[in-house]
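Let's practice the habit of predicting before peeking. Look at the sequence and jot down your guess about where helices and strands might fall. Then scroll down.
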Amino acid sequence: AVQPCIGPSTVLRGITEGGMVLKIPISDTESVFIEHRSDSGFDSRLPGAGILVSYQDLSVGDFERNEVNTNPNQPWLKVIEADGGDDLVRGSNQGEASDLFLNNTTFGAEGVQIRTHDGILVPWVASVSGEENLSVSFTAPSCNPSMKVDMSNHGSPVLPTGEISIDISGNTEPCTSELTSSDGRGVALTHNEQGHTLTFSTQGTAPSTAFVEGTISCDGSTVHLRYPVHILNRIPLDSTFEATVHPDSTTMLDIPVASFGDGVQRFSVSIDGPLARVSSGEVSVLITEETSYVLVVEPNGLLTENMLVYGTVTISTDEGMSWTVDVELEATSIKDQWWTPLTEPGRIIAIMLSILGLS
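Done guessing? Here is the structure:
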């Protein structure tokens, strides 16, 4: 039998009193931060005192462009509220005393649960004890799990008949699962030469979101999973688009939207980057087998001859799944003539050599 792992117990002084912040990585891009916010110094203005737990996911947002926490379904940084709510994420309040962990409270795999962006429950339990001098103690079912599970971040988009790829590394023989889907379908863990997949017993209904929940066990190690599955009739593909526009007048562009699947599916659309300053379009698009998104480019005095404009057209679902069309536009008022290709340097040299050969 796997022996439980007893981790460290740390007394946390208040941050305003020189205390430290514990950082626990839970994936390559995710971390949990634990700190003691006491009723002293500048922390005395907070709505309460206790252990503050926060979660950060560096795989979402763009910190350098100050585009973080733009999607409540995929926060870059959020507070793990001790009362189990998401009031701060939803903007229901600006924080309250019940958000802080106090004596005899737990978080992690028990109590207030913490999951990775793959929906995997962290393997440790943190217990808070004490009154003024608060300490945090850690335990885990195993110090050295023999397997690791990796899935697409924040859920997977699938067609109604689709399956989900799942990467299981480490000791993967034998692996078993006890999984269910919130839409009533059966879920099985299968394995072939390409790897592991989650397959469903019947076709799903689109558009809808279901959660696959349960356990996967390999060689005595177990992970607990709660994973969102976004069932769509049609799934977009990332792509690129290049075109020329007039620097002084309006240009209408038809941007092809690549996708796969059957039927139609509506998505939200946003325009990001410098492109957003000179263009506009509909806020949604109905994607079929052959769909174009109409982008209206209006210079507004911001474009000059030979200027390049970059940006993205982002196609997304309400749940936060997104795909991008990277756009590059060149502003020019010179229209191509029949002789334009002949004026390119390589063509000029070839023409001169041909003339010399005839003389």
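How did you do? The helical segments are 87-90, 345-358.
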